[in-house]
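Lesson 9: reading folded outputs for more than one chain in a single document. The general rule is that every protein is listed as its sequence immediately followed by its structure tokens, and records are never interleaved. Here is the first one.
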Amino acid sequence: MYFAFMDDSARKREDVPRQDLGELHAYGAVIFPQDSLQPYREQLAQLRQELGVPAGTEFKWSPDGGPLHNKWKELHTARVRMLEGAAEFGVQACVVVCAPELMPGWSETELKSEMLQYLYERVTYALGDEKGIVIADQPGGGRTDETRWLADALALDTDGTQYVKPANKQILLPIITTRSDHVDHLQLADLVAAATTVLIAGASTADRYKDLIYKLLAKNARGYAGGTGLKFIPSTRSNWRALMNLAYWVFGEDAYVLPDTASSLGTVLPHSGWIFASNSGLADPNAAGTQQ
């Protein structure tokens, strides 16, 4: 049995250095084997003791107040230890990153629904033949937004998606929601979703975590995260607006191979038909590439 914990992240337009990308939104999930749940909690309890913070301290990418607010050295230590511990326990991650400004005509509601479907599919792919349960941080926004999000989540259980049929039932229950300050594993989901979003944005604050994030991202049979552990919206079906070239500029992937066609050669990256074909979109060409 596996447990997937999911959270969201966002980056305002002014905080996205990569040109022509605009604001970013992301959903991320971290998938734990059942027998790793308690050991990971114990590791984080020990980490809080070492950092000298209260037992209930929530580890977030951007602590809004609390014992770790503006304590950058301790926060960096926590991030590294959380990601390293996750890798030791065989945790896999899936992140869906959306650039709404490149999706003209799509409403925020439609995009959130699309992101949720893509993440649900990626978690299912990562589970393989195993079974799992998905637990999400309580959705933000008002009551109406939360109700709509929960309705979309329930529809995934009853109707599935184009590629994941409800009869398969790899994910055994509708998505369950709870508060992230009560569940350490949701705090890792926050970290992974946020750090990945920052990396895609081209901001340097997540560069030191790039290798750790990439190690966690679920890979297909050929060892590529793109399309499997890392999904972009706009996707390849959106022609030139597709963002898959960012898998090359950020993580150094040289091909895009769909999860269900892993035996094929795939598409060589960077691809001339998609944006960011000739450069990373950053003023400093080395800032988001693999030459750091």
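And here is the second record, again sequence then tokens.
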Amino acid sequence: MSHGDLSVVHGPGSVRKRLGLLAGLFVTMLAMVFVMPGSASAASSTGHITHPELDWMGSTIKAHEGSSASSSSSAGTVTPMATQTLGMDVSGYQGNVNWATAWANGGKFAYVKATESTSYTNPYFAQQYNGSYNVGMIRGSYHFATPDTSGGAAQADYFIAHGGGWSGDGKTLPGALDIEYNPYGATCYGLSQASMVSWIHAFANQYYAREGVYPVIYTTFDWWNTCTGNNSGFATTSPIWIAKYTSTVGTLPAGYGFYTFWQYGDSGTFPGDQDRFNGDLSRLQALALG
């Protein structure tokens, strides 16, 4: 007779005991499926962040915008500075990075994913952030935004607490807000254009209040146009980092006359994504100084 055999009855007490156990199991299963009222906030803040290790800067771009030799629009395109400084961005997806090789290949800066939402930290952050610094690169960190899980200020605080801070040492770039297509659902995270603008302002203003510099904003023109209505309200404070996997940077968000960073490819010479800073090394150092 198996211990799991419920067809054998050993008397009224045994029946009541088994029924009680089954009832308890049923309640437990219901609690796992349905969120209890007191825990609704916690569940909604983290429930759908299921693959943060796959949410790197630009992870959603090719699927939505593709990659080609021509820009989607020539209107508003800009001419880059004569000198570009090469760099990269990495995340936990790359694991331990060989920074000596990246430096030898001409990489002068690196941005490293630190956080996502208010629940994820990159397990390789220390190796990547400190390793790039130790070989001589100017480095910074970035936060992958999920505006449907918590407020902008809360995510800025979490970012700062887990590697996103800035210091005016000439080697640390302002933190970057990675705001792009939702990898988990609705393109604009279920927010209206006005609500999205408010969310980004909340993040940027909180970062500035605590760190003394505004964050860099990473995005694509198409996403920005769709989800913020091509809002121009950040151009006087946050440098723009545009993602465009084409031969030209294309159209910039409203208010920006030039880009600061351009992510032009998702593979190439360097680990992670391929980036250019729009200026020479001295201008990159100036940005790091705030």
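What the second record shows: The radius of gyration is 24 Å.
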